[in-house]
Specification:
It comes from Terrihalobacillus insolitus. Keywords: Membrane, Transmembrane, Transmembrane helix. The protein is built from 4 helices and 5 strands, in the order H-E-H-E-H-E-E-H-E. The termini are far apart. With 138 residues, it is of the alpha/beta class. The chain is 40% helix and 14% strand. The chain has helices at 2-30, 41-48, 62-67, 102-113, and strands at 37-39, 54-58, 74-75, 93-97, 119-122. A 5-stranded parallel β-sheet has the order 1-5-4-2-3. It has 2 domains: 1-31; 34-128, Oxidized Rhodanese, domain 1 (3-Layer(aba) Sandwich).
Length: 138
């Protein structure tokens, strides 16, 4: 009887720890990123009218970028972001986007840890973009 009680207690503790871990993981994915500016479709359009002030980075994978992206965007997939930091300017506002806004938030966290300061992202990702999309890698 005591052995069974101990097993139940251990199972209960394991379940609680698993629940806490999953909750923490989900929270980290959806939680707001400190100092990350959320841009609407319209706000991004206005920023893109002023050339040279910002760098637009599409953090989706290459095949996603090729299927359609915002004109002027550079493709630096989230999966290779840390290896390509030297390609990202430190003296311009960085505007990130992905498909829905989740990966761009992750990219912003990575960039902030690397001391990038002026970061925005397209809220809702390219799914919220109503403008034209350019196909191909150019």
């Amino acid at each position: 009887m005591v052995k069974r009680r101990i097993n139940l207690d251990i199972n209960f503790l394991v379940n609680i720890l698993l629940f806490v871990f999953v909750g923490w993981f989900v929270y980290k994915r959806v939680a707001p990123v400190k100092n990350l500016r959320n841009l609407t479709d319209e706000q991004l359009r206005e920023k893109l009218k002023i050339p040279g002030n910002s760098t637009l980075i599409d953090v989706r994978e290459i095949h996603e970028f090729s299927s359609g992206h915002i004109q002027g965007a550079v493709n630096i997939p989230l999966s290779g972001l840390k290896q390509r930091l030297k390609e990202i300017p430190t003296d311009k506002e960085l505007i990130l986007y992905c498909q829905s806004g989740m990966r761009s938030k992750q990219a912003a966290r990575i960039l902030q840890k690397q001391q990038y300061k002026d970061i925005s992202h397209l809220s809702g990702g390219i799914a919220s973009w109503s403008g034209k999309r350019k196909s191909g890698n150019g």
